[in-house]
Design a protein that fits this description.
The protein is an all-alpha fold. The chain has helices spanning about 1-20, 30-50, 65-95, 105-130, 135-150, 160-175, 180-205, and strands at about 55, 65. It has a two-stranded antiparallel ribbon. It is globular, with a radius of gyration of 20 Å. It starts with a helix and ends with a helix. This is Brp/Blh family beta-carotene 15,15'-monooxygenase.
Amino acid sequence: MENYNYLNDITEIKNLMNKSSRFISLSGLSGILAGFYALIGAWLAYKTIYFDTSTMGAYRDLIISEAAVIRLLIIATSVLVLSIVTGIVLSISKARKSHENVWNTASKRLVINFMIPLATGGFFIIFLIEKDILGLVAPLTLIFYGLACVNASKYTLGDVRYLGITMIALGLLSTWFLGYGLLFWALGFGGCHILYGSLMYFKYERK
């Protein structure tokens, strides 16, 4: 009986340490919704690129007008903002249900470590867009987002690390098929978010 109590104490201490060092209120449902937002965004981007009179050329060497690029940036920004807002709202809701503080040391470290690769990639991609090097935009968004997930994963649920590795792999593969960047983008930000978000939801949230 005494040994059983010791095991319970050790388990409780381990759980407390895990909560203090990791942000475990990350919502899997927000990942699912972010995936659907990305798929909708990919569809709108597809319509803009391939059914717009301002674009010319074959599938692998399209020439896109400035107006079309602006529309694509608006679509991408809208998807990003919706995903972030959804993630924040659902994570706050999850934290409140488990009586946890959302903005703590672990969540601050999570945000900082996530934003460093993401911001670096964002500035680099903006430079490429300015120089009309558009073929690498989709692969690099996947790669830098994947690096951000891997870098931040040590401060949240371990599944985020595998999401990041998958994103990096898709981004690298996409560099070999530059004409199909939008397809890889939809597969990564859409399909992978839905897949890993579902795994996280059923693993940690559904009771």
